[in-house]
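Entry 12.
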Amino acid sequence: MTTNTIPFRQIGSAKTPTLPEPGSISEIFQLLEQASRRLKHIQRLTVQQTGLTPSQFYIMKLLWETDRRPFSELARELICSRATITGIVDTLQKNGFVQREPNPDDRRSLLAALTEKGWSLQGEVPDLEVYFNQCCSGLSKEEFQTLGGLLAKLNWSLERECGSPDGNVR
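Predicted 3D structure (tokens):
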């Protein structure tokens, strides 16, 4: 498995075009949708190198950051139900990447914990940050930070006013 191959064209020295300012909230949401589709495409191209689905990959990524996480925490991070996480963890467990452990803090819940095979997979996965940075070279570091802050604020506002996609109001 080659992890340093970039599966899309490099932008190189292309200049950032002059773009029109969005004039309405619907135009902004349309731009967000377009960017989301492109980023999901990049994500699929890079994650498929691991043989995992994007959801499986992100559970593994979360466990590599902090092992032994409750299913409810994984569900919150992926913005999905615990039942969905259970199915994803089932597949990861069947493939030998994770195992279930009792939660010492809550007898009613289980923890997803990495196996040795799960830890070894970490060295074989592509670094999505490198790919995204290369694809988004038209943004300066400051613009990237501003964009991140604005998107976080937008998500917070939408969740506060409309609830979360999994149907829970937080």
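Annotation: Confidence is low (pLDDT under 50) at residues 1-13. The CA atoms of residues 156 and 163 lie 10 Å apart.
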